[in-house]
Amino acid sequence: MLLHRLRLSHAIASKMVQECSSKRPCVRIGTHNGTFHCDEALACFMLKQLPEYKDATIVRTRDAAQLSECDIVVDVGGVYDPSTHKYDHHQRTFTGTMANLTDGKMNFNTKLSSAGLIYLHFGRRLLDQLMPDSSQDHKDIVYKRLYEYFMEEIDAVDNGINATEEKPKYHITTTLGGRVRNLNPAWNDTIQDFDGQFEKATEMVGGELVNRVDGMVKRWLPAQDIIRKAFNKRHEVHSSGQLVKFEQGGCPWKEHLYQLEKETGCEGEVKYVLYADSNGAWRVQTVGVKGEGFKSRKPLPESWQGVRDEKLSELTGIPQCIFVHATGFIGGNKTEQGAMEMARQALEMK
């Protein structure tokens, strides 16, 4: 299991108090002291997964003399210079993004934090450590996906970039960045152990990253072939090509489906997917509009929404109906034939 590969034996020090072996000079990762954030905690974790930094001491300081003795510096110092291993993003002149620092090979335009910078320069080698048995193609896929669905959020939050220009309708306080922030000592704590808490933060964000990679390797990538086969057979399920039936339920399908539609030039075509649930019943689920939250391409009919069991069967004329959700995004039937008929009727109704 990938979690077993975590290397979390941190020696955190505001000053370089740890004696280094005279036979083997101590490798030092420098970052700032005081209040910590998600980006430098994750940057330090990623570096610690690499052979050259796995035994490194993390030096938390803003003292320029101490930072100058470090082998690599992240999130402090006011310099971005990969040739000297300086990876700060706070200087006014810094405008780096994945897009402009890769000549457009990675089309993400969010300003990078220290985490994003370390991922840009060391991320592929990080994945070599976390995905040793995977093909290069799979590593390339995960490299891009991990940035899009994990790293970019951390970059954006640290740089004060909102996810939307609209006013949020409620507070979101349980993000990874929020949990890291809550690990900082409170203003009135008797013991202000920033270094000890930083170690906990690094362990937490590292565990999140490894779990994401683990999920992509063990669950998301294997689902790709299943979704592709079902997508290619969709016209056998319904002549319109608007229904896709999965022979195996429970696998992640949305991003794979969007990508397949894009590759084949039929974006927005598929309206419903069908699959068996864990109880042996069948579900018909709407395909969401990509990037628009809970909005569906074609919700199940409004007259069905919130209706259950016999009342739903009477309403639809389809035996063994179980339910349709109040928002119309999913419904259920005890049989595959029943779920298929629900989908067929829904396609024909306005």
Name the descriptors:
350 residues, alpha/beta, six-stranded mixed beta sheet, five-stranded mixed beta sheet, 41% helix, elongated
Structure summarized in a few sentences:
This protein has 350 residues and is of the alpha/beta class. It has helices spanning 38-48, 64-68, 98-101, 114-130, 136-158, 176-183, 194-232, 234-237, 254-264, 309-316, 336-348; strands at residues 12-13, 28-31, 57-60, 72-74, 80-81, 86-87, 243-245, 272-276, 282-286, 321-324, 330-333.
Q: Enumerate the strands of the largest sheet in spatial order, edge to edge or round the barrel.
A: 1-3-2-4-6-5
Report the strand count.
11
The portion of residues forming beta strands comes to: 5-15%
User: What shape does the CA trace take?
Assistant: elongated
* Number of distinct helices: 11
Radius of gyration: 25 Å
Layout: helices, strands, pairs:
Elements: E1 12-13, E2 28-31, H1 38-48, E3 57-60, H2 64-68, E4 72-74, E5 80-81, E6 86-87, H3 98-101, H4 114-130, H5 136-158, H6 176-183, H7 194-232, H8 234-237, E7 243-245, H9 254-264, E8 272-276, E9 282-286, H10 309-316, E10 321-324, E11 330-333, H11 336-348
Parallel strand pairs: 1-3, 2-3, 2-4, 4-6, 7-8
Antiparallel strand pairs: 5-6, 8-9, 9-11, 10-11
Helix pairs in contact: 1-4, 1-7, 4-5, 5-7, 6-7
